[in-house]
TrEMBL record:
InterPro entries: NAD(P)-bd_dom_sf (IPR036291). One of its GO terms (molecular function) is oxidoreductase activity. It comes from the Eukaryota. It comes from Acipenser oxyrinchus oxyrinchus. This is Retinol dehydrogenase 13-like. Keywords: Oxidoreductase. The lineage of its organism: Eukaryota, Metazoa, Chordata, Craniata, Vertebrata. Belongs to the short-chain dehydrogenases/reductases (SDR) family. The gene is RDH14. The keyword Oxidoreductase applies.
Length: 105
C-alpha cells in the first residue's frame, strides 16, 4: 500500500522487558512472587535493551529494502507460522478496527 511513498514499516519483537506492568501479579502471595520473579529478572531485558530493535529499525541505513519484514534482537528474523497466517491477520485487523471504531476505506 505504501510502495513508492518513502514510508517503511516493520514488525518487531522487543523481547521480554523488565517493567512494572506485572507489579500486582501474585500480590497476595509475596513469597511465591519472590520465587518466580527473581530468576525471571535475569532473563528479562532492561527497557534500554528492549528499545534497541525499535531504534535499529528507525535509524539504520539501508533498511528501506526490508520494509514489511520482521525483526528481533536488531536482526531480520523469520516470523512464527502464526505471524504468517493471512486469514488470522485479516480477522485481527477487522476486530481491532471494529473495537476502535475505525471505518475501512
Amino acid at each position: 500500500r505504501v510502495a513508492g511513498t518513502g514510508v517503511t514499516s516493520y514488525s518487531l519483537h522487543p523481547g521480554v522487558i523488565r517493567t512494572e506492568l506485572g507489579r500486582h501479579v501474585l500480590g497476595g502471595y509475596p513469597l511465591l512472587k519472590m520465587i518466580v520473579s527473581a530468576p525471571s529478572l535475569c532473563l528479562m531485558k532492561t527497557p534500554v535493551q528492549g528499545a534497541q530493535t525499535s531504534i535499529h529499525c528507525a535509524v539504520s541505513e539501508g533498511l528501506e529494502r526490508s520494509s514489511g519484514l520482521y525483526f528481533s534482537d536488531c536482526s531480520l528474523k523469520e516470523p512464527a507460522p502464526e505471524g504468517q497466517d493471512d486469514r488470522a491477520a485479516r480477522q485481527l485487523w477487522e476486530l481491532s478496527a471494529r473495537l476502535v471504531g475505525l471505518e475501512e476505506n
